[in-house]
Amino acid sequence: MIALGCDHGGFALLGEIRKLLDARGLEYRDFGTYSEESCDYPVYAEAVARAVASGECGCGILVCGTGIGMSIAANKIKGVRAALCGDCFSAEMTRRHNDANILCLGARVTGAGLALKITELFLHTEFEGGRHAKRVDLISKLEE
Ligand code: RB5
Question: Does the pTM exceed 0.90?
Answer without folding.
Answer: yes
